[in-house]
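Read as chain and fold; for instance:
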Amino acid sequence: MTLVKIKHGLTGRFVADIFGVSNTLVTKIFVTWTAFLAREMQYLIHWPSRDQIKSCLPKCFKNYPNTRVIIDCTEFQVEKSKTPTAQIQTWSEYKQRNTLKCLVGISPSGAFTFISKLWSGNVSDKELTKKCGILDLLEAGDDLMADRGFTIRDYCTERGCTLNIPPFSKGKPLSSKQVTKTRRIASSRIHVERAIERLKNFSFLQKVIPLKVKHTIDNVVMICAAICNLYPKLAK
């Protein structure tokens, strides 16, 4: 019942009709089993060692062999709160709607290696990266790859890590070296976008998330990411 609801994004009332139970019982089962499945499947989201990553490094990362993780943020639309304060906190200027945001990290081969807790949609990518805990997993000498919106070079430098993001044009045409760097990073970083696309293939995460199940969304995202890690590699 829980997996059907997550995969197809069915309403509680519709699921209740399918299984011949009350809507209240569907909610209780969903809350209980998302918590249980998230705990049991959490081991599938594993932070690999350097040696593990290098042993299966895809060809598209040959120019960035020290890449430990590729990060990006994604947002899920949530029901508008009746409380003005809560409504402001979840309002995303980027999406122009109320959202919850999480940061995901993938290995070069495309497996989810980090899933943050969900934050209010108004938090910046930089602030979320700083507070979610992923930086604490990095070791000196690691490379972190991200989009140019992640202005976190100072955080990476503090840990002896290198941040690889596309160069900024600053209103001027990019040099040939900058164009080449942009192309190489884009061809590697695209895999985090493909991983997020896999994650959002679960219809529950595509629809407006009701406030009454808001506290279970962390578990749902964890379950979906763990299932995605059972799929074939995104990059070889």
